[in-house]
Each structure stands twice: as structure tokens, then as C-alpha cells.
Amino acid sequence: MTDVTPSKSARRPHHWRRDLVELAALFTAVAVADAVANMIVHGPDGPVLLVASAIALIITAGFHTWWSRRHGHAPPVDAASSGGASSGGASGTSEGAPAGAVERTGAAADSDTTTALWRMRATVRDAPGSLAALCTVLARRRVDILTLQTHPLATGTVDEFLLRAPAALPARELTREISLAGGGDIWIERADAHDLVDAPTRVLGLATRTALDAAELPLALRQLLGRCTIHSLPAVSPTGRPTGESAPVEGILESTTMRMRDPNGGTITVERHHLPFTPTEFARARALVELDARLGPRVPRSRDVLTLPEGRITVRRADQSDVDAATAMHERCSERTLGLRYHGPVGDADRYLDHLLSPRHGRTLKVQTASGRLVALGHLLWDGDETEVALIVEDAWQRRGIGSELLGRLVALAVEAGCASVYAVTQASNTGMVAAMRGLGLPLDYQIEGGTLVVTARLRGTDERQTPVSDETPYKAAYGTSHGIRPGATYGTR
Asked: Is the pTM value of this prediction over 0.90?
């Protein structure tokens, strides 16, 4: 962009020496003209004197022009060196400054423009000027406040900032400055471009996702509250025994834990040990849960039709209304197929269908034939960053690519949900499941313990701030003697 300087501000300042010379030249010219006029009128050599005076005036005018150009209108050094882009030399090269110093100054300016995004919380006194003191400290350290949210408390206010700070400013020094300005319980972490969305827009987007799909509630709560663990414990276990878990309608808030009544029965518990919840966050979470309860059970109505040599099949979302059809599919499956899927007595397989098909614990895809018969199920179960995938295909429809198709779609749902990895628990002899996992084209980790094989696929394009995959995750070994799910376990989203 070219800077345009107004003509008034572009005038060069006058120097007193030039004005004095011009004034002296004017008086000299008047005196000489008066003397010449008297001599012409009263003397015999009038024409000669007239010519001499004209020559003197020409010489004087020439001297004046030379003097003005040299001392009054020559371009300054800073304007010439900056190519005319600066006004009055304010941003040009200083006179007499070495070229190396100028280059170093430019490099320093470039380094100052490098910034980093931070999310910061601080508790301040509920008194006039408390927030202004924090803002003054941030301004002094050249920190830009992008967004600000206030969470009122009984004894103070929690201020949540999204900051753009110089990259050279460490978090420890920023925390110390805020503490000296009166901030307490300071918490700070790196942010990214996704955090630039303002809070009302983010909450409305999460409400829309929850309204369209009941399975989105745990994910929406996680995105609303940040890094946390969400437990969804049903009122009745998969084996039919009451769990004893319940919460009042208004919910419970206890520092780093909040408990709310699950619209499907049971309790939703949210834990965040590194940062206490505020009443504002509790109210937002309750609003999402209440929205889910008012809308009732719901799944997206989209479906995909695939063509196989044996006919056309349909892939769509499943829910608890498909329990009877899934039970009928179990009756058509062999004991080996049920054993590979549920890792236990095949007679207990039907007990877990109501739990597995609940949208609260994940997402389920079903495959139906043209006649409407359910022939396959694929489960994506929330279990922290390492979400579980599980498949079961009716014997008569195996080895036709249905399992690979379901697995690819489940992995796509996991990527959309922001999961860091997915894992499958099966037996080492289940070559079909191993082949389907290898067909994903993702980095795989294998762990074998007691005849149970755990294959973990690390997903690409997920949030780098999530917890990396660990081979020592305790739940992997626990699945060696389970029935595909752990009775009484909680499926969290961290």
C-alpha cells in the first residue's frame, strides 16, 4: 500500500538563516534601486547606470536562486534512502546510521511480529478497576485481547481470555505479570485457530449438532468444556442389575465435578481436575442436556445404498429401536461368529444390545438387505481418545466386503468426532478383522495378551493437542476376559 501525504504536511520547514538572507537581500536591492534612481535623475550618465543596475539585479537574483536550492529545497537523506515512502523521515534511514545497523533493526521488527495464541483464566476481585489492571499489564507486554468472557462467582469473577502474545513472551512470565496485577488461580494453555470462534457462536453450533443427533451430546459437552472426562453410566447395567446411579433434576456442581441426570436414564458425570467448573459452564452444560431430553431419541435419516453381486444393501444409523432386529440376527449367527465378537459366553450376547445401540455410548451403523433384514452391525464406542470399533456380520453375508465398508465408515465418524485413535479387540485367529484394519491404510499398533489381540489405528488429521497413543492403556488388558463391553464401566470422552 502506498502512503499518500497531504500537501500541507509535505511542506518543508523554513529555516531562520534563509529568511534572514532573503530579508537582507531585499533591503539591499531597495537601497541600490533608490541610489541608482537618484543618480539617473540627477547625473549625466543615467543610461550607463541603468544598465549597471539591471546587471546587478540579475546577479542578485541568480545568487538567491542558488542559495535557496542548496539550503532550502534539497531532498533530505532519509527521504531519498526510503524511496519516498516515509513522510518527514519518520520511518526512513537515520542520517549517518551504518547499513548493518539498519538491517539488524529490520530483522528485529520481523521477529516482533511473530505471535502465539493463548487461552488464559484468572480470578480477580469483584471490584472496579480489577479487570483494568489486568488489561494494563497485557497492553504493556504487547499482548492483544481477542476475546473475553466473564464467569461471576460468589466471591469474585473468573475472566477467560483468548490472547495473541509475542512468541518470545513465555507463559511463565505472562503468568507472573498477571499475578502481580491481582489475578489468582491463573491457568494458561496454548490455543489454536479453532478457538477464535466466539462463545455464543460455538454454543449455538453445539446445540445444533445435539439437536440433529443424540450421539453428539457427549462430544458437544467435551467441546463446550474443553479437556475433560465424561462418564455416562446407565441406571441399569447390561446384565439387568440397577447401578444405583442417579442425580437430581437440577444437577450437582462440586468444584471439578458436575453430575447431571441423563435423559436416557442414569447419570452423566463430567470431571476436569486441572480447572474447577464455574456456574456459567454448569448452566451451559445443563442447557445442552435439557435440549437433548426435550427432543427425545433421534438419529440422522441419511442412508447409503451399495450394490453387491447378491443384491442391493443399505447402510444407515441404528438405535435402540433396532434391538429386536439385532436379536434376530444373533439367532442366525453361528457360535463362532458370536464368540469372536463378544469374547465370552454366546448366551449373554443379547443382553448387551440395548446398551450397544444406545446413542449415548457411541454410534452404530446397520446393514439391511432390500427386504429389510438386518445382516450386520458396526459399533463406534466412546472410550476416551482411543475409541473402540467392533463389527459383527451374519455368517451368510461374510467375505463380501461388508465388514470393510462398515469399518471405513466408522473410522470416518471417529475422525469427524476428533478421536485420536480407534482400536479393535478380537482374537488372534480372526483374520478377517485384522485384514479389515490393515485395509484402512493407517499406522497400526498390535498388542497380544492371553490370546486376545488389540489392534490400534492412529488417525491422521486429528487435533495435535490430544493425548498420544500409549501401549500401556489399562483398559486393553481388561478386555481380554470381557464380553465386548464392561458391565458398569463408563464411556468417557477426554
From this structure: no
